[in-house]
Design brief:
The protein is an all-alpha fold. It has two domains: about 45-180, no CATH class; about 185-305, no CATH class. Helix content is about 75%, strand content about 0%.
Length: about 300
């Protein structure tokens, strides 16, 4: 997942870097709010993107299947969620102010219920993780509040969406917004990932290629070696690297979401002494190399024992 996402992130890096420069310069929470508002307005104007976003969620929920296999009360909640999305679509399509406002009110009430699902680990509704349902409800509530010119309230729901389900939000629900709000701070982790990936894939192709991690160089380094052409040793190393990268990205992302929430409460980080979190790569290169060597050693030992058993 990390490899494919690196390419997408590189294409939106400039916007995010500009945002972080403004925030680090000491501007208020208004920078975060305006970034969220602009993203939501862009999304609402992009009808194909909005439809694709809804379809992906509804396909994952798969209501016809849930009606056959899940308890009625749980299916009812998923049906309510689908209804809330339909009502919001009606509000977006309506040219009548009264109809639009009534539809927004109706959609808000439905989506608030879904957003309140407890996103505890392993908790599910009709087989769907509560965090997945709740996070998507928060996203659509944010749409409603931007339509009502309640941008701060919308931003709170966006931040809540990230906290409820970091992984799905970052990779599925709002990857572009993640790039704008958080990538400038988390860029070190991605650079670390690309460097480790380059080391793994350079085992039999030389190590002369040294990426500079500018936007186009990130893309070029990601494409340097097709994943399908990896040998067994490289595949094992890459699987471990991917896991370390995703966990590190989520853990650091959580810290920045909490930082933004604190910023929203106090308006200015400088006035209240709110510190920007420090991001560090998961581990230094030498430690990572030792870890990968130990994994490789385990693989080789397993291969030898398997061969010996087959010979015996």
């Amino acid at each position: 997942m990390g490899f494919r996402f690196c390419v997408r992130v590189a294409l939106n890096g400039a916007t995010g870097m500009a945002f972080s420069t403004r925030l680090l310069a000491g501007e208020s929470a208004g920078v975060v709010v305006s970034t969220v508002r602009d993203y939501i307005l862009d999304t609402l104007l992009d009808k194909p993107l909005l439809a694709k976003q809804r379809k992906r969620f509804l396909d994952a929920v798969n209501l016809p299947k849930r009606r056959r296999t899940a308890p009625y009360t749980e299916v009812s909640l998923l049906s309510s969620m689908a209804l809330g999305l339909d009502v919001l679509d009606e509000a977006l399509a309506s040219q009548d102010v009264n109809v639009k406002n009534l539809s927004l009110d109706h959609a808000e009430k439905i989506l608030q219920i879904c957003a309140r699902l407890r996103p505890i680990k392993q908790a599910k509704t009709a087989g769907i993780p509560n965090s997945y349902i709740s996070a998507f409800a928060h996203l659509n509530l944010a749409y409603i509040y931007v339509l009502r010119d309640q941008d701060q309230r919308a931003t709170r729901h966006i931040l809540k969406m990230f906290l409820v389900d970091l992984r799905y939000t970052r990779l599925d629900f709002a990857p572009v917004l993640w790039q704008r709000l958080f990538f400038p701070y988390l860029r070190q982790i991605m650079i670390w990932y690309l460097e480790q990936r380059r080391c793994i894939l350079s085992d039999d192709q030389g190590s002369s290629f040294q990426p500079s991690y500018e936007s186009q160089d990130v893309i070029r380094s990601c494409r340097q070696r097709p994943l399908s052409s990896m040998n067994s040793e490289q595949s094992i190393k890459m699987a471990k690297l991917e896991n370390i990268y995703e966990v590190a990205m989520d853990e650091n992302l959580r810290q920045y979401v909490l930082y933004y929430r604190a910023l929203m409460k106090h308006d200015s980080a400088l006035k209240k002494g709110i510190r920007i979190p420090t991001v560090e790569p998961p581990m230094d290169a030498s430690k990572h190399a030792e870890l990968l060597d130990s994994i490789l050693y385990g693989f080789e030992s397993f291969s030898r024992s398997s061969k010996e058993a087959s010979v015996g």
